[in-house]
Every structure is written in structure tokens, then in C-alpha cells.
Amino acid sequence: MSLRTTLAPALRSNLRPSPPSSSSSSASSSSRLLNPASRRLASNIPRNTTAPLTAQESSAAQQLDWPTYLALRRSQRLWGLIASIPTTLIGFSAGAGYFATIEADPTNTILGFEPVVIYGAATLGCVGLGWLAGPTVGGALWRLTHRRVAGAIEAKDKDFFRHISRWRADPSRQSGTSPPPLVSPGRSSRPLLAANPSPDYYAEKVGSLRQYRTWLRDQAAFKRKAQFGQGSDAVY
């Protein structure tokens, strides 16, 4: 059974815009259809599609059900976070051990700064690199310990991200990166998308079917705000 079939009722209910009050439902529906700002905002939101799975990938993906796959995916992410701790310490030890042995002349500057400042910044850079290397190291160790399901996990990843790319919202509609806002006639000149940050784009926090339903609701709420605005700037 596919993820779409399992959650089809939730998808349909989440993607349906919430109606306003019952007394003004008919007038609100008419204004949505007639308002040019709403039509233009809705037309600017692309639909993400990806290529379907091959027969071999589909057969491998069926070896895992969705709860098991999401649990394995959560454990892989946890391994990456845990591995970031030793890699960060290694980066700090390597950076501090190297730059602490360099003799610095206080009379000479590097890019206009004292050598101590540059060496300290370089040490912090080594710490950052160690932290970023943690998920890669942790993911490699996780794959070594789960080699029997590696093929099924890879195929299920493609199937999962196919669902994600279909239902996720367009991040260009968030307030920080949105184009000049369209203002509906007779309303305030404030942006329609103010304080509407894009939700989890890659669904990295999804580790169960419940979290996936929550992710779908967040995407649907973002799309509604992007199309019709929010608060006093809402277009009904």
C-alpha cells in the first residue's frame, strides 16, 4: 500500500482551504474567484513533480512498509547527530593543536587583523567543519550496520522524496524571499505573506506517519497563506 493511499483522506482535507464564517461563506467564495490578486498569487505556486520509480525500484521499495522505513530514517538522522559530537571535538583538537604551535609576530598583521584573531577564527572554522562532517560519518556508519536493507532503503528514499516533492510548498512564497507583494483593492499596503516562513522543505524532521501528517498540514497552511494572505490582509 502506498503512502498516498494510506493518507489520502488526510491529504484531501488538508489541501482544502479553510472556509471563513458560515454567514459569509458564499460571498467569500465569490470574492476568491473574482479577485485578481488571489488568482495571480495562486498561479505563481509551482507543482513539483519527479520521475516515477522503475519496476526494480518499486519492487525493492515494497520490501519495507512506511512505519518501518520512517523509523529507520529517524535512526539514520540520529546517528548523524550523535556522530557530530566526536567529529566536532576532533575538529577543535586538530585546529587548536595546529594553530597554537604557530609562532605569531604581533607586529605583523594578516588581512589587517592580529594573527591571534585570525588563528582563533581558523580554529572555529575547523570546529564548524567537524560539525558538518558528523552527519556524513554517522550516515556511513549507519549504512554499514544496515547493509541488508540498503537497497530497499535507497528505493524507498526515492519513493518518499517523490511524495515530498509533490506536496511541499513553494519556498519562494515565504516572506523573506517573496517578490514585491500584490495588494488587493481597498486593503492595507502591507505584504500578504508577512510572517509566513516556509515549513520543513526536505521533510528532515519526519520520522513517523504522525509527523508526516503534521508536515502535510504545515504545507497546506503555508499554501493557503500564500494564496489568500493572513490576518487583516487575508483575501476572501
Automatic annotation (TrEMBL):
InterPro entries: Pam17. GO terms for biological process: protein import into mitochondrial matrix. Belongs to the PAM17 family. Residues 9-35 have a biased composition (Low complexity). One of its GO terms (cellular component) is PAM complex, Tim23 associated import motor. Residues 1-35, 170-196 are annotated as: Disordered. It is a multi-pass membrane protein. Component of the PAM complex, a complex required for the translocation of transit peptide-containing proteins from the inner membrane into the mitochondrial matrix in an ATP-dependent manner. Keywords: Membrane, Mitochondrion, Mitochondrion inner membrane, Protein transport, Transit peptide, Translocation, Transmembrane, Transmembrane helix, Transport. The chain crosses the membrane at residues 78-98, 118-142. Component of the PAM complex. It is found in: Mitochondrion inner membrane. The keyword Signal does not apply. This is Presequence translocated-associated motor subunit PAM17.
